Amino acid sequence: MKLFVLKADNSKEMDDISEELSKHKFNVIEQQDNFILMKRKRYGNVLVHAVFLVIALFFFSIAIFVNVIYFAYSFLWASPNALITTEKTDDEGNPLEFDTIDEVLDKATAIL
Q1: Which residues, in sequence order, are CB contacts of 39 under 8 Å at separation 6+?
Q2: Which of 6-10, 14-18, 92-96 has the lowest mean pLDDT?
Q3: Tens of pLDDT along 58-100?
Q4: Phi/psi of residue 64, each to 5°?
Q5: Radius of gyration of the chain from Cα atoms?
Q6: Distance from C-alpha of 77 to C-alpha of 11, rounded to nearest angstrom
């Protein structure tokens, strides 16, 4: 799961960005004075789940395990995290690489 880092100049801008992400089903995981950590849970594509269930019911029961693995992958590893911060450097003094909100929303709404 990739951590997207978004830049904010002040706490007002952090709140504005978090409200925008909240409209796209992101939830606040942790919040402090200088950052907000948000996550959107993904469960997988409904069509893919339906296809695997039909295959499991009529042909091969092993397909249900593939469906569970796909769900676990979507939920645990494909769910995007967004860190909104006012910091410019990490703990070691290296400059942070910032993403755009469009990149975050593209990943959050991706089908697979």
Answers
A1: 26, 27, 29, 79, 80, 81, 82
A2: 92-96
A3: 888 888 898 999 889 888 888 888 999 999 888 888 888 888 8
A4: -65, -35
A5: 18
A6: 29
